[in-house]
Amino acid sequence: MWGVSGQYDFVRERFDGGVNVPRIPPHLFGAGVNYRDPNWLARVFTLATLRQDAVSIIDSRDTSTNGYTPLKAELAYTAKIEDDVRNHVSFKKDEVLQHGRAIRLCGLDQAQLSKRLASVTDAIARRTLSAGRQ
Questions:
Q1: How far, CA to CA in Å, does 32 sit from each of 2, 25, 41?
Q2: What is the mean pLDDT for each group of 10 consecutive residues in the chain (134 residues)?
Q3: What is the pTM of this model?
């Protein structure tokens, strides 16, 4: 079964006199698409965080932050290990079977991947420069 998801979150609050309340999170909006069947779950989604400049003047630790938009992908397979999985401590164990075990095959976070690729690229560039000097 295919599905789509979306969300938008924001909080706006001020003290009497119009002073911003400290540590108010920035606006968030996101969307995703997913596929699910009895064994497989596949989804791609993003949750964009906007820049937050509405900081409080009463707390010096409350500073502006840049926005960011990570892209995440997930692929999971759920397999039933045994034919009859029951939770021993449940009073409903004779009526309700437990789900199978989930195995996460792949998780991708675009922000982490970008950092790792940048560090690998820098390392290759340093090696190339040092090899050229010899």
A1: 11, 21, 13
A2: 94 90 92 91 92 89 91 80 71 74 55 64 66 56
A3: 0.54
DSSP string, 78-96: EE-SSS----TT-TTTTT-
**What letter would DSSP give residue 39?**
S
Contacts for 13-21 with beta carbons within 8 Å, 24 or more apart?
Answer: 15/58, 19/56, 19/57, 19/58, 20/54, 20/55, 20/56, 20/57, 20/62, 21/56
Q: What's 1-34 look like in SS3? A: CEEEEEEEECCCCECCCCCECCCCCCCEEEEEEE
Q: Which of 74, 73, 71, 75 is nearest to 110 (CA)?
A: 71
